[in-house]
Amino acid sequence: MSKQGFTTGIVHGDRISGTEHGGVRQPIHTSVQYGFERVEDLIGVFQGTKKGGFNYARQGTPTTAALERKITGLEEGAGTICFGTGMAAITATFLTLLRAGDHLVSSRYVFGNTNSLFGTLRTLGVEVTTVDACDVENVKSAIRPNTRMVFVETIANPGTQIPDLQGIGAVCRERGIAYVVDNTITSPALFKPKAVGASLVINSLTKTIAGHGAALGGAVTDTGLFDWSAYPNIADEYRRSAGKDQGLLQIRKKGLRDMGAALSSEQAHAIAMGAETLALRVKQSSDNALALAQFLEGHEAVGKVFYPGLKSHPQYEIAQALFKGASWLLSFELLDAERMIDVVNALELPIKATGLGDTRTLIIPVAPTIFFEAGAQTRKAMGISDGMLRLSAGIEDIDDLIADFSQALKLAA
Ligand SMILES: *Cc1c(COP(=O)(O)O)cnc(C)c1O
Q1: Are 181 and 153 in contact (CB under 8 A)?
Q2: Which domains are assigned to the chain?
Q3: In terms of Cα–Cα distance, which of 334, 364, 342, 362 is closest to 350?
Q4: How far, in Å, is the centroid of ligand 1 from the Cα of 204?
Q5: Which residue of 73, 117, 308, 381 is surrounded by the most CB atoms within 10 Å?
Q6: What's the pTM?
Q7: Measured from the CB, is residue 91 less than 6 Å from ligand 1?
Q8: Ligand 1 in contact with 85 (CB < 6 A)?
């Protein structure tokens, strides 16, 4: 297929790669086993010499493979592996590419469960240093001879900090360190981490890529920029492949096959259906988030508003330069934190729920819920105040959202 635009590629991808009976979508393949006329082909699939073959659904099905091709296309990458959840994609990436004695440098501002996973990595002998990655100098000075990987999120949840994505990419390239970027909040509709030199890109498909909140999934995409043949932790059995392919091959075998957090065909199909409208939804939800952020920033009952599309945001310039929009994620604080519960209860449209990147606006108080287990000290280090509210803007009509916030905020004025 010749190079096509973002949405053209995703809505025509299945048909052009070939489906039965002229179907416009890849069907839901429910088989766990795949049989062959000749045993040589079965052997070829096991040995990787028969390309595109399937043997057992834990390692992929035609339906999950079609979704992998789409994600690869959206990220302009070299290949993708899908998992049952975003956390499974992150866990498989860390556990298959890091070993005891290795060192990982991460942004301090990461998804709560990723931060919790760092605790597990430490028990396995992987050293983890977390830094304020908004300043590349902090990343640089944390790097040691055994640093194998740097991990960041494009826009941090809930504080919306943006790391020096480009600067960190340059440092990683110079030192031969794998650069892993979680693109969940921006999604490939707003930003492609390949543009700043990422080696691997993580997407939680559960969020904006699916968009409907009706399926869980995750993906890791290799951008093709990193030469894994120079990476020390690739097992001998995967050294036979081309250097560029070795990282993803190891993640598929050791991560997906052995750890087993496979994406089902049903869920892959649901995600692929949602993904067709990704660019349209992200445009509308980002426009809504910007309008809400501007409204909230001007409201007398509201304190700080955290949104990279506002000029008051410390990384406004980076967001303007790198992203097509500042995303659907914003957070804000009420001046009187005591009014928080009443204000949230008075909202009629936003759903009081966790989750992100849905077509419906979602709202959640951060400290007593998603960052409760992290404890007060971690919350303080991550800039999360007791009165912080996180909002994931949906695609509703903006006038309805503004009217609803206006009436609810009267309780705090
Ligand atoms: C939600 C999320 C994840 C985890 O994804 P799941 O599909 O829920 O496992 C990882 N990173 C970020 C930034 C997220 O928002």
Answers
A1: yes
A2: 6-30+61-275 (3.40.640.10), 279-409 (3.90.1150.10)
A3: 362
A4: 5
A5: 308
A6: 0.96
A7: no
A8: yes
